[in-house]
Write a structure and sequence with these properties.
The chain has about 70 residues and is α+β, with helices and mostly antiparallel strands. Helix content is about 35%, strand content about 15%. A hairpin with a 4-residue loop joins strand 2 (about 20-25) and strand 3 (about 30).
């Protein structure tokens, strides 16, 4: 069984180990990480507003292609 599709979201001002894990379909926070509530709310809005681009990158990754970090 594979893990649900998810994103790791981090603030440019914080260390990567403070990243938040957010499940997709439906969008929900799995692990808050080191982000503040304001940062989490912003991340959720960005994910909702860019879901098509995010899905395209995830599908490319699942097909074995190397993908770059999406900076939104």
């Amino acid at each position: 069984m594979s893990e649900r599709l998810h994103l790791h979201v981090s603030s440019k001002n914080k260390k990567r180990d403070a990243a938040t894990k957010i499940w997709l379909n439906p969008i929900e926070i799995f692990d808050k990480g080191g982000l503040t509530q304001k940062e989490l709310n912003t991340a959720l809005k960005i994910i909702e507003n860019n879901s098509d681009e995010i899905s395209a990158v995830i599908n490319s990754f699942k097909e074995g292609n190397k993908v770059k970090t999406i900076k939104l």
